[in-house]
Amino acid sequence: MRFQAFSSLSRQARDRGLGARWRAALLAGCTALVLAGCNGGDSSSPMSKASKSLSPQTLALIDQKGMTKSSPIVVRIFKEESELEVWKETTSGDYALLKTYPICRWSGELGPKVKEGDRQAPEGFYAITPGQMNPNSSYYLAFDLGFPNAYDRAWGRSGSNLMVHGDCSSRGCYAMTDEQVQEIFALGRESFYGGQRSFQVQAYPFRMTTDNLVRHRNNPNLAFWKMLKEGSDVFEITKAPPKVDYCGKRYVFNATPVDPNQKLQASLPCPDYTMPEGLEEEVAARQKDVSTKIASAGALQPVAPVKTGKDGGMHKVFLAKLENPELSAPGSLPPVVKPPGSDYGVSTTEPAPAESIALATADTVTEAAAVPLPAPRPDDAPGGPRIAAAAAPSTGGFFDNLFSGLTPAPTASAPPAVAAAPPASAPTPPQAGGAPSAAADAQARPPERAALPQLAALDAGSNGGFLDSLKNLFGGSAPPAEAAPAAEPIANVPVPPVRPPVPRQAAAPAPQAATRANPPTPATVAPSVVSSGTATTPGAVQTLPGAAGILAPGSFSAVQ
């Protein structure tokens, strides 16, 4: 009886082993059939794009790193760095980096995709099955990320056809060159042939380091990114893709419910669950380190822009090729490519315009950057050239900074209305980036107020120019006739005698001085507002520590 029972158990175990091998073979066969059947008219060609073999160089690299051609893979994407990594399982069972591919183009901003049409490339954890591989893509080859996943649906997010594909063109996707996606597609295909049921894509806003999270500490997506970092940490600690589940409208990794009858469901509260011994403590320690460093980040520690305005990014190797088409790049580019920050495409057969490269490499692109500046007023125009209006910057006041975009007037002389003292005692302009002293500010205030009619007079006859609008906004009236000559070119005009001090004091009442002394000058506020929380100078950081209060509506939590 014992022998028969043992034989029965052995036979059952052998049958189960054979069944598992048959199921794996059947899965590989079905995968091959699906991929071959999608090749359309090219299916008869052994070298069709969906079935091209890996290059000898890639096969040699796989062998060198202790991997096999059909071993499982993991794909990791980093938006800010514009890089895609393929990791592969080694013969030891751990995953190691096989290759890093520069991303040719991604669209949107840092942050998750929220709704259809927002141009956002997804962030999160996605599983790619053979059915999501698309050999007939309009963009050469592609695989669908599977957005929205259960986490995305729990938050009501919408979108479709979010892919990794070729053609270097993106509307919510991660676009590679055709040659790059050819190899990535083949690596995924071979992993399916080897029995991998799905491979994981980990899409991040940037490399999930503590320093990067501290740099982006003012971003409204910080809590979401810290959650993604948990999954990244699990991958780095275990050297294997994390088991991804959802509960309480959040991601959970390598979690096992305490009660086996309870399930982890994205829209329901999380039941009690455990993680492998030691892993939970290590992940918690890394999270604590991030929180501690964010809390202790000083005002002088750099803060990244909350929104770049560039509509995505492009790896620097492709930007260099746009600038100089003679340079080599990992793959060929289409005839026209739209660089980040530009509203138009550029030819890839000739050097791209300098302004396109400048916009693509800028940290921040504001709406004002796309608005052309008015042409300079000619010298013979009524009231003289427009640059005469910029002679007032010697006062360091509000209107100086407001019109700082205009060409500055020569500093060797000052208009009669601005002179506050004989030439020997005239105040000197403040240094760039500095603030005028209290005495200089007090002396500069009366001429600044007297200069208002001059600024309006310079714009007279401009058919509704910017200065006319500004005059109407502040309730100004037509300038006095005697103020117009003050805008004439004054290089050879002698400075008039000093005016009595009493009228000058009356021109600048005390409340005006108190109001100007308390808030920061526009020169220090403007850069912080444009960058939506980025402090680029010590002065700007001191006036707006953390800059958390100026996040405008329409940031990543509410996509435009």
Automatic annotation (TrEMBL):
Residues 412-423, 431-448, 504-539 have a biased composition (Low complexity). This is Murein L,D-transpeptidase YafK. Belongs to the YkuD family. The keyword Transferase applies. Residues 412-448, 501-548 are annotated as: Disordered. Pathway: Cell wall biogenesis; peptidoglycan biosynthesis. The active site is at H165, C173. The lineage of its organism: Bacteria, Pseudomonadati, Pseudomonadota, Alphaproteobacteria, Hyphomicrobiales. Keywords: Cell shape, Cell wall biogenesis/degradation, Peptidoglycan synthesis, Transferase. Residues 73-204 form the L,D-TPase catalytic domain. PROSITE patterns: LD_TPASE. Signal peptide: none annotated. It comes from the Bacteria. InterPro entries: LD_TPept_cat_dom (IPR005490), Transpep_catalytic_dom (IPR038063).
